[in-house]
Amino acid sequence: KAISAAEAAGIAPDAYYCNSLLENTGIVTVPGSGFKQLPGTNHYRITILPPEDEMDGVFERLSVFHKKFMDDHA
Question: What's the distance, CA 43 to chain centroid?
Fold first, then answer.
């Protein structure tokens, strides 16, 4: 479903995921398609820069988002 939604939006699937992540959590990632990923691999790149005491919160938001995204697009 995520690939179909990305196609409907006119963007690559990894960009669709990254845009959704940013809109829902404020976490910025870069679509792997910008780095000549192998076709069909759909990944993203992330650099973690918040203060150390905020890391658990970032990973919690990422985890909650990813689970919901997968549930919504299964």
Answer: 8
Residue 55 confidence class, pLDDT cut points 50, 70, 90: very high
CB 74 within 8 A of CB 1: yes
Give, as one character, the DSSP assignment of residue 50: S
pTM for this model (two decimals): 0.89
From residue 46, give the alpha-carbon distance in Å to each of 22, 27, 31, 58.
Answer: 12, 9, 9, 12
Cβ pair 36, 30 in contact under 8 A? no
Name the phi and psi angles at 38, rounded to 5: -70, 140
Residue spans of beta strands (DSSP E) within 1-74: 30-31, 44-45
Residue 41 φ/ψ region, left for φ over 0, alpha for ψ in the -120 to 50 degree band, beta for the rest: alpha
